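Before the break, one more example. Copy the sequence into your notebook; we will annotate it together after we see the structure.
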Amino acid sequence: MIQWWIHKQKLEKLPMFALGASSGGYFVSVLATELQFRGITLMIAEGVYSQLDITKNYPSTLFVHMPKDETRKRMIEKYLVEMRNKGIDVAEIKCMEFPLTPEFFANRIQGIDPMLSVKLFNVFQEKGFIDKNGYMRDDGRAMPWKTAIEEGDIVLPDKSLADHIQEEMNLAFAYHEMTSLQSQQILDWFQSHMN
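Here is what the structure looks like once it is written out:
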């Protein structure tokens, strides 16, 4: 289907790249054995290289991952060495944890004003969800933060904001999350593989 679309759009002369996150990363790692990509990026995925017989013709590969996920980190480190030994250009971008600030949610989520952001930060600090430096103590999915904000009489202007708050906390914790924070680095890496 991809080849059909490329032909239909008359794009055969353009370099082809792929990015896949999580299960999409596993898919892209296999798809790269069938299509001639100039480079691929696997985000929060180590690929299925233990099941593939890859050769030096395999495309340049960039792993974007969160090293706090030790199992995935070890697999990526192993594949980096194996792929380099086969002459494949590989690299990694490590997505590290970062601290929350009182303005964090207002800066990152449309619909949360600065005053609400400060209230959320204060509740998370009071409940011990973040340490004295603002770093998450655990994954946002594992904390009873929704109960904490209810107990703190914090009402979100829209209930759907809860999902965004949790995703931002997960991202700050840096365990297993898709992120756009490194988009420019990924695009720069693709750009460096145009020729």
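The mean pLDDT is 94. Residues 104-173 form one domain. Try to locate both features in your own notes.
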